[in-house]
Predict the structure.
Amino acid sequence: RHANPGQEGEERWIWLRLEPLADVGAVGVTNARKPTVLAAAGAPEPHIADYPFTTLAPNLGMVDLSPSERFVLADIPGLIEGASEGAGLGTRFLGHVERTAVLIHLVDATQTDVAEAWRTVRGELEAYGEELGDKTEIVALSKIDALDDSVIEMQREALEEATGGKVRLVSGVSGKGVVELLREAYGMVRERKAE
């Protein structure tokens, strides 16, 4: 029967930013076959196809290497030069790997300049900020099944010279080196949790 006069309302836009608690993040340029490599070890179910920009949204899931070796992996869409300024899918999904203990950086071994491909992604990670450029990184050449041994070794040497560290060799098609790569990442996650 009685109501007080209404008061002035309030309206605002609120942007919520998702930062999942993934242990390991997978990064690389487009066409580095990240989903194929990760699927070879039973990682999150990705969309796999034979063209660039197949991954349009992050894949987040549990990797089970053994009953005692489990971790959450975030696979984000490939980065291209200028992503930090919005090129391609931009850096809108890099928040998914901000809290990870380690990044797995896959580089397509069939590219002409593997060192430049690595530098492109490194540059975008550093431009994004949030200390992504300082994260521990495991670098791996993917698609080694498509090359002969001498070319693989040449690409590995070029990438090791650019990164200043060890480069792993993996193939999503054959599964070669994938479990070892993920096990190495898990070891780093365990060390970080112990700290």
